[in-house]
Write a structure and sequence with these properties.
Strand order of the largest sheet: 3-2-4-6-7-8
Number of helices: 14
Structural class: alpha/beta
Radius of gyration: 23 Å
Largest sheet: 6 strands, mixed
Strand content: 5-15%
């Protein structure tokens, strides 16, 4: 019996040692700095797993040099702001964007960075209207991450001595995983696996209309109504904390394609979107009161050339110069946003891009943006019919306000 126990224990320890050697040699999550050069993968790229919350919390805590910019927000941030872009030349940045994130989660990420990360000069926080309809709980592996208070030791063990670590390491060796996230947190969209990139099945003109439909906005429970006030309060508190700690905050509203706006309008959500923008401007102004670093808000979501860009047939890298699909802007848009925020020379001087949120929430500016939306709707009846069909199929609200399909804003 004793010999059997010794042999079993030795076999178990041997397996763990072999697993650890494999994981360290491949270092597919770029956490240990031990990846062998024989592995044909760039040292600055890594895999993602379970939503990336655990890994990004570890990466933020491991940064030693001060950051000039920390990007916070959802996948629109993760895909849209490249810390290595020429638009940020001379600046050190990290992209903390998380797929499927929302404002409550982003507020916790901001707080974690202030407490556990390097010194940060400026936080760029993108916030979207539809985030306020998402569940309040963090997505993916948020509960196991440092963002929610989990200890880093458990996170390292999770990525070194688990089946997930073994599976990902073997998949990387045999080419079964795409290394498309870099060590600065940026998601290189074009490096994803071909199956992930093939996301334009709906139509050439409205790619991913159904695939990326925001179902969380059209459920029986109206989360905006029940939790909106709390979310605004948490966001205000997070911004005020950064402001008082001497960290500048720029809140931005990134553009979506006009078809996304038309979907909201057709569903009767245009008045609420305008209400959301006005309230957002109020809480940001309140958060920046008193002594501290600057707090600003810029609106890039009005219907300009970018939002009205026409999609052509083809893959996500070819069908539009500014969007991957209806929701995610390309890094060229992120570059334009940063050129505006940093007051650097724009790459396209003919893009009159973005304005302070205090300006775009004025009644006349809201009315002009609404009129531009209605003009596009009138000029594209076939696209509006497609949007209406998708909305009828997906809307789970009760009663469903599809009888009129739209309510004009006051």
């Amino acid at each position: 019996m004793r010999r059997w126990l010794i042999a079993t224990t030795a076999c178990g320890l041997g397996f763990l040692v072999a697993l650890l050697v494999l994981v360290l040699a491949t270092d597919v999550f770029a956490l240990f700095g031990t990846r062998l050069t024989a592995i044909p993968v760039p040292q600055n790229l890594r895999l993602t797993t379970s939503g990336d919350r655990v890994i990004k919390a570890l990466e933020i805590a491991a940064i030693k040099q001060p950051l000039d910019i920390l990007f916070v927000g959802s996948s629109r941030v993760a895909f849209g702001f490249d810390p290595a872009s020429a638009s940020l030349a001379g600046l050190r940045a990290y992209n903390a964007g998380l797929n499927g994130s929302q404002s409550d989660e982003a507020a916790l990420v901001l707080g974690y960075a202030l407490d556990h990360g390097p010194s940060v000069a400026r936080i760029v926080w993108n916030v979207d209207f539809e985030e306020f309809f998402r569940e309040s709980e963090g997505g993916g592996d948020f509960a196991q991450s440092g963002f929610s208070g989990a200890r880093p030791a458990g996170a390292f063990v999770r990525h070194a001595l688990t089946y997930e670590a073994l599976r990902k390491s073997l998949a990387a060796i045999f080419g079964g995983q795409a290394f498309y996230i870099d060590v600065n947190g940026f998601y290189h969209y074009e490096r994803q696996s071909p199956g992930t990139l093939d996301n334009g099945r709906d139509s050439a003109a409205l790619p991913t209309l159904r695939d990326w439909f925001p179902r969380y906005m059209f459920q029986p429970e109206d989360r905006f109504a029940t939790t909106g006030a709390q979310r605004f309060a948490r966001m205000e508190a997070a911004i005020r904390r950064a402001h008082e700690r001497g960290v500048a905050v720029d809140v931005v509203l990134m553009p979506t394609h006009v078809a996304r706006r038309a979907l909201f309008d057709l569903a009767g959500l245009q008045p609420r979107l305008e209400q959301w923008k006005r309230r957002l401007a109020e809480i940001i102004a309140a958060a920046g009161e008193g002594e501290g670093a600057p707090v600003r808000a810029f609106d890039f979501s009005e219907l300009d050339e970018i939002a009205r860009a026409v999609f052509a047939p083809g893959g996500p890298m070819a069908r539009s110069p500014v969007f991957f699909e209806l929701l995610h802007p390309k890094p060229v848009v992120g570059d334009r946003i940063m050129q505006r925020l940093l007051e650097r020379s724009p790459a396209r001087a003919d893009w009159d891009f973005g304005a302070p949120l205090t300006t775009t929430t004025q009644p006349q500016r809201l009315a002009a943006d609404r009129a531009a939306l209605r003009l596009w709707e009138a000029e594209n009846p076939s696209l509006m019919q497609t949007i209406a069909e998708v909305l009828r199929d997906e809307d789970r609200r009760s009663p469903t306000p599809v009888a009129s399909l739209r309510a004009d804003a006051p």
